[in-house]
């Protein structure tokens, strides 16, 4: 079964956190939700785990005990050891001692945390704590795994290991949805949703999104139209919505370029009043 | 022109733990240098020594040609990861405090910050807070800029605009040192420094750093089976869209594992990503 | 769930300490120290029949000064200087007893006992004729306020800098550590001084508490005490990561002083087994000064010991704490090779790497 959201709207008091957002989360692959701070990523994920109530639209989710959740910022108790964390979470999901030991042990080994079992969670590095959070979310073998910014602040090496764990989970048949601010990571997923201020700007496979980008992007030393340009290293990328210009080398856009173009497109739409 | 930040044989020990081991590098005026590394690699300790917050066990750290102290720090701009803003004060008050500390007149605010000048920092969205932190750190036209994860959590367009400012400073002549976990930010730098296990293991552009490490891309319809087969064989396997990547392996080896498992696939050697290189270093 | 909570609690050293130490402290205090009943009252016998009076005085009066030359003036001086709480002057009929009203419980006991002796003794209660509790409490409360602001409020204010992450920024800015410290502490100093003035004035107006003594002396005592408690506040901030922790620690410093400084239970009533603690507490000396100056117009000649102790405490505690705080701002200076030293940051130490 493909999980997801259908035209979901969420309002908090006066603000609209999500406006008419739809997303498919198929099993067996990783789906990414990207966008800056305040775009609505967290809100979207929290609707899936039942922490946020939708005002409009519908959700396709499994039973609550079939959902695994890693909240932003850790999800583990810093004053308990790794083992104690596993025991506590396992117990709260109703797993037997034997199940917790077996599955917990397996997950900890895959996450490379076996040697740290006796260590306090608060004394683990950021990457290890996130991996512990992943283990805790996976203990009860969920069909839907929801991860809120698991790689933010995590060093690149731990991110590769985390990505491996997440890949394994998807490969084993679970549906995985995660939010991230790292677009290169989003490029490695099967499907991406770009949110901006609660609205969906882009949705689809990364390679399709790149192919579908309107206009083209060139690299220039100094742009003629600064509003349509952004820094890339020592030079700029400039966007030509209506096709190739005479000067500048065209570059193969990546997801970062595509996202910026989408945001610029939003601004120009608003500006031209169309 | 002489370098603005110099580390020579920089070493720092805590008891019998070596946090930074014999690190040597320069940051020259006008360039943007990125410092990368896993947690525990020694980035933060190195930074603290360069800022004068920690004394080296041996070797030297110098800022603008002298030991980092109160005088040299007058010409330094620093934005820490936590932004260093007073959340209970307004935008204008934060700017004024910073200006006074550096003994320069406060710059007038522009754009979105000007509109928000009387708002408390804690009520601002992250992107605007970061902009404010930059303004506060740049008012005194520093010759050295040290930024800790400058665009962490900020969306692509706003992040690009922040990098506009960083580049503008570099073009003005400042030497910029950035620490980051983000590969996109790494790509914005002129030059990268890669630290692992307290040592500096590579310098140069992303291509320079990745040279010598490759990955194997596996394209097949039966990608779940391929993934399982390779994981069983103990390989470092990751997903890439709907294909599979194996880090730092000979394509022939990968092919054999897949054949033994009865999976038909096309196997090619591809360049590794920077993260994969870092993972391979730590393995 | 229960198990998890217990485990987490075990790690929280400060709360654990509070849970264990607090009941013990309260038990000891209320078991041994808490005593409104004064057993002995320091007394002087003066005048021609001093010796007879000394021999025949009721047991509660501990006559340790016998001066046949003494008279009314001597008696008043001795009371003012807090040498004794009761002075019995012979030489006229009836015997004139002077009682120090600022030593509330001793005075209550003394007047009760002397009252039973009827016409043979004329009782004159000095400094607090109606034995009003408020008159004795208000000076002590000024001490309480100084202590509260000095430790709790100051430490929270300083720790907030650490919590916010701005302490690091301050360390990097071209600010002299001394200016940062002065800048951070001065508002609290001013606030405490202002608060104390208000309470004293209100006490005088609302409860008619007299202010018989030298204002400058009072201010000096208050300032010295303030330095001590500010020092404690700064020290607490250097060993706390969060405001919650600093409040807990401040509580540890506050509670014993409230109970054992003579503010609630009279010092004279606290047995020596516990009273030695009182003499280590700064509030004890401040209370002595405050009550002495406000009620008895006592001078430096009788209060010099309290002033000396407070000065010493202020020097040690305040200077020590400031040096410690300075280390957070400029730790680069005093590094010794090979010595195990962690930087004062609130990030997870990089020692525990993946």
Can you give a write-up of this model?
The complex is a heterotrimer of chains A (274), B (283) and C (354). With 274 residues, chain A is an alpha/beta fold. In chain A, helix 2 packs across helix 3 and helix 4 packs parallel to helix 5. The radius of gyration of chain B is 22 Å and the shape is globular. Chain B is α/β, with parallel strands linked by helices and 283 residues long. Chain B contains 11 helices and 13 strands. Chain C has a 5-stranded mixed β-sheet, with helices on both faces. With 354 residues, chain C is α/β, with parallel strands linked by helices. Classes of the chains: A alpha/beta (274), B alpha/beta (283), C alpha/beta (354). Chains in contact: A-B, A-C, B-C. The interface between A and B is large, with 51 and 53 residues.
Can you lay out the helices and strands and say which pair or pack?
The complex is a heterotrimer of chains A (about 270), B (about 280) and C (about 350).
Chain A: E1 3-12, E2 15-25, E3 30-34, H1 41-48, E4 56-60, E5 67-70, H2 82-92, H3 97-110, H4 126-138, E6 144-147, H5 156-171, E7 175-180, H6 183-186, E8 191-196, E9 199-204, H7 206-211, E10 216-220, E11 229-232, E12 235-240, E13 249-250, H8 255-272
Parallel strand pairs in A: 3-7, 3-8, 5-6, 6-7
Antiparallel strand pairs in A: 1-2, 1-4, 8-9, 10-12, 10-13, 11-12
Chain B: E1 5-14, E2 17-27, E3 32-37, H1 43-50, E4 58-63, H2 70-73, E5 76-79, H3 91-101, H4 111-115, H5 126-138, E6 144-148, H6 156-172, E7 175-179, H7 183-188, E8 191-196, E9 199-204, H8 206-210, E10 214-219, H9 223-232, E11 237-240, E12 243-247, H10 251-260, E13 266-271, H11 274-282
Parallel strand pairs in B: 3-7, 3-8, 5-6, 6-7
Antiparallel strand pairs in B: 1-2, 1-4, 8-9, 10-12, 10-13, 11-12
Chain C: H1 2-11, H2 13-33, E1 41-46, H3 50-56, E2 61-67, H4 72-80, E3 86-89, E4 95-100, H5 104-115, E5 121-126, H6 133-164, H7 166-172, H8 177-207, H9 215-238, H10 243-260, H11 272-278, H12 282-296, H13 300-329
Parallel strand pairs in C: 1-2, 1-3, 4-5
Antiparallel strand pairs in C: 3-4
Overall SS class of chain C = alpha/beta
* Biggest sheet, spatial arrangement of strands of chain C: 2-1-3-4-5
Shape of chain C: elongated
End-to-end distance of chain A, in Å? Answer: 39 Å
Strand content of chain A: 25-35%
Biggest sheet of chain A: strands, sense, closure? Answer: 6 strands, mixed
Radius of gyration of chain C: 25 Å
Question: Strand content of the residues of chain C, in percent?
Answer: 5-15%
The total count of helices of chain C amounts to 13
**Principal-axes shape call of chain A:** globular
Structural class of chain A: alpha/beta
State mean pLDDT of chain C (0 to 100 scale): 81
Would you list the SSEs of chain C in sequence order as H and E? HHEHEHEEHEHHHHHHHH
Question: N- to C-terminal separation of chain C?
Answer: 29 Å
**Radius of gyration of chain A, rounded?**
21 Å
The helix-strand sequence of chain A is EEEHEEHHHEHEHEEHEEEEH
The average pLDDT value of chain A, as a whole number, equals 89
Q: What is the share of helical residues of chain A?
A: 25-40%
**Which stretches of chain C of 5+ consecutive residues score pLDDT under 50?**
333-354
Q: Give the count of helical stretches of chain A.
A: 8
